[in-house]
Write a structure and sequence with these properties.
By secondary structure, the protein is of the alpha/beta class. Helix content is about 25%, strand content about 30%. The protein has a single domain, classed as Alpha-Beta Complex (Nucleoside Triphosphate Pyrophosphohydrolase), CATH 3.90.79.
Length: about 220
């Protein structure tokens, strides 16, 4: 049986997150995709058996001053995006968030002033990705979290397999342009078209959540 929209979201885990963070939106998206997305060496979303992913929206104390973007060494030029990390089978969402932030930035997650602090969960986007060549529909999901970088924090990736190629900061108002670029990256790199459309959806979700809750930006 083909996966449904909700297959990537564990109901019990989602309920636990709502108990911790309050009512959370769960948005469903359907995508038609094809090779090399999901099959190419640099676009194998499920290559390590990940069941979903976390996305962290990192700021330095005031979201209006900037949100962290990154780019991988093998991405198309200029394809910066919000950082994500795969949730492995048997791994809890919050555990993944801590692990991925430390691997990618070198900073530990915790409650002290010298640690990255998790402030809120914005919600979840689940996907049904209908792959034409494989004639199969794949379920996936992205869990979004706002986190604050410590005042003296330094971006120092620990895991070379993350292939971090650089960092940028963008304001919330500039996040729309980031999504636009991802959506259109296939114009210059056709083989990355479906990847870009997929990645843009998460950014559109974050933009919507921040627009509907401006206090997130004003009082992070």
């Amino acid at each position: 049986m083909l996966p449904t929209y909700r297959d990537a979201v564990d109901p019990a885990e989602f309920n636990d997150l709502q108990a911790q963070w309050g009512d959370l939106p769960l948005v469903h998206q359907h995508l038609q995709v094809d090779d090399p997305f999901l099959t190419g060496e640099e676009q194998e979303l499920f290559h390590d058996s990940r069941r979903a992913e976390i996305c962290y929206i990192m700021h330095r104390g005031n979201m209006a001053d900037g949100l962290l973007l990154h780019i991988k060494t093998f991405y198309p030029s200029g394809a910066f995006r919000l950082p994500t990390g795969g949730i492995q089978p048997g791994e809890a969402v919050m555990a993944t968030l801590s692990r991925e932030i430390e691997e990618e930035t070198g900073m530990a997650v915790g409650v002290r002033n010298d640690q990255v602090q998790v402030q809120r969960c914005l919600g979840v986007v689940s996907y049904a990705m209908e792959h034409r060549t494989l004639s199969q529909t794949f379920a996936f999901a992205t869990y979004h979290f706002v986190v604050q970088m410590p005042p003296a924090g330094v971006l120092d990736p620990r895991d070379p397999d993350e292939y971090i190629g650089g960092w940028q900061w963008c304001t919330p108002n500039e996040l729309g342009a980031v999504a636009d670029y991802l959506e259109q990256v296939g114009r210059s790199k056709p083989s990355w078209s479906d990847w870009g459309r997929f990645r843009a959806l998460s950014h559109r979700f974050v933009i919507s959540r921040l627009a509907n809750s401006p206090h997130y930006i004003q009082n992070p």
